[in-house]
Amino acid sequence: MTKRTKRRLLDYGSFILGFGFMGALDGIIFHQLLQWHSVIMATDRSGQIFSDGIFHFAVTVALVVGGILLWLAGNPTSLEKGKRFVIGGFLLGAGIFNLLEGIIDHHILQIHRVKPGDPLALLYDLAFLALGLLIAIIGYFIRRNSKNDQEFISA
Q: Is Transmembrane among this UniProt entry's keywords (predicted)?
């Protein structure tokens, strides 16, 4: 396997794993534990359960795909820089999930809010976006610092 192939597998795998992980956290925390919202706020409970089921299946697929890609990439030779690259990609994927889910579902499609019915619903939505942006920025800078090394991964 070439350096470029390993790097791509690490890049895609860590991003997809982070994206899926944040989706799983969203589903567990907001959908199940807090019961603030569902993917589609249907008037009947079966519609909510079905939409959440599709969502949970999709993020589970992302977790599995991300894990497989990382497994296929193997261990990077430079462990310290390899860890930074994978952690940065993971955080970038997690932050992008929050940004996409927040912008598309909360604002463009208006499928649901973070905490619908609350007088501060917009504040919750904006905090959700700000958290996603912060996580993505941190991930970007961690990854960016690891990309500067030409000998990051062995052939």
A: yes
Q: What pTM value is reported for the model?
A: 0.85
pLDDT digits (tens, 9 = 90+) for 112-143: 888 888 899 899 999 999 999 999 999 999 98
Enclosing domain of residue 124: 3-147
Is residue 152 situated within a structural domain?
A: no
Give me the number of domains the chain comprises: 1
Residue 132: inside a domain:
yes
Distance CA 33, CA 49 (A): 14
Give the count of beta carbons closer than 10 Å to the beta carbon of residue 109. Answer: 10
Residue 62 within a domain: yes
* Residue 153 is assigned to a structural domain of this protein: no
